[in-house]
């Protein structure tokens, strides 16, 4: 057995990890690189593996940095299965088509703006539709076998709707060893609204864990709600607009849930709320199809007839058309505009930022992780001026950061998961920026159950092989394509 690391190795986007098992190759996630536009485009341009050699894909969840390159597989002729939970399958049905639409729009803009007539999208909406046809939905807890000698089960990750931590049972024919491998995907947090808490994997021999927030602790969601309400009220009193960049999947729904709870407790008055993202609208509709993912609090709320996602209740509106989106510029505040994309790299949020960050009465609320070199990270760092669509705008609006809303486990949550995972012989840290990962690996080494473990921070292109005693060691082999492309990301 070998594990080949490509995307999300010492970075947080482009997740791709290739398992070599019993003569087959299985891809764990197939994410798009996001970040500095030119570098990300170059990193996405060439696929790091031979698609003809991939036998199956196992997908942890629908976020684009984990699923967004799947249509490239279809474009290059992949015809194998993509295993996911049912909710992830439904979400990818809309999210990958939306990503294809964005790719087509970007190609049109490049062709027009830069006079490059041969500009082509990375993939199209048709490519996205083709790969969705290869999805095979699996229940939580159901065993499936992507190849001989391998059994896999999905368990709740608590990160986004349909997200899964993966439990792998592998009989390695070459060494004769039986291996229990765990992959966190993106691990969620306990006690967040809407979703069930993340499941714990136990008795692992090999652990692949994310490390996005491996160097810090989150504020508790209950502690930050009052601050959130006070901030909104302050901006309302100025007649300003609150702009919230939010991922269409999960974060938008979570913010709506919190706003409804604050209004119910009289901490927040009714006000105009616009969800300006057709993708978020579609994702919210899909939530209703998958109550198997809901926690008991949301189920109880729905049982009482209180739907936090009601599309026409108490000032909440879901916009659809471009004209409706543009019209928000002419509607006076106060109001809340929740729009995608979450890292501000695409979609309608860029237009709302362009039109609102110069006004000191307005406020931008950051409610999710912003990767390096994204427009969202520039807002977090409070750069001014900020370039949007090539033009510079002074950042006069206030910017507030709420990491309590993060759907990722913090250092405590990640350590708790690893500390209860058994006695893994090998631990691989992925999906984290290098500085955060270095801190996290140091904390992992202090855990009692990992005293004898080899803890790795794989670089892009590195390959690790199973040896004796269920340990994995780095091989001399390097995937040079992964190495070069991922360093661009």
Describe the secondary-structure layout.
Blueprint: E1 2-5, E2 17-21, E3 24-28, H1 37-45, E4 56-58, H2 64-67, H3 70-75, E5 82-85, H4 86-113, H5 125-132, E6 135-138, E7 143-144, E8 150-156, E9 164-172, E10 177-183, E11 204-210, H6 221-237, E12 241-245, H7 251-264, E13 272-276, H8 278-287, H9 296-303, E14 316-318, H10 322-327, E15 335-339, H11 349-356, E16 363-366, H12 375-380, E17 386-388, E18 391-393, E19 398-401, H13 411-419, E20 422-430, H14 434-444, E21 454-456, E22 462-466, E23 472-478, H15 480-488
Task: Please describe what this structure looks like.
The chain is of the alpha/beta class and 489 residues long. It has two domains: 2-216 and 408-488, Metallo-beta-lactamase, Chain A; 221-405, 3-Layer(aba) Sandwich (Rossmann fold), CATH 3.40.50. The protein is built from 15 helices and 23 strands. It has helices at 37-45, 64-67, 70-75, 86-113, 125-132, 221-237, 251-264, 278-287, 296-303, 322-327, 349-356, 375-380, 411-419, 434-444, 480-488; strands at residues 2-5, 17-21, 24-28, 56-58, 82-85, 135-138, 143-144, 150-156, 164-172, 177-183, 204-210, 241-245, 272-276, 316-318, 335-339, 363-366, 386-388, 391-393, 398-401, 422-430, 454-456, 462-466, 472-478. The strands form four sheets. Strands 6-5-4-3-2-1-22-23 form an eight-stranded mixed sheet. The protein has a seven-stranded mixed sheet with strand order 7-8-9-10-11-20-21, with helices on one face. The chain starts with a strand and ends with a helix.
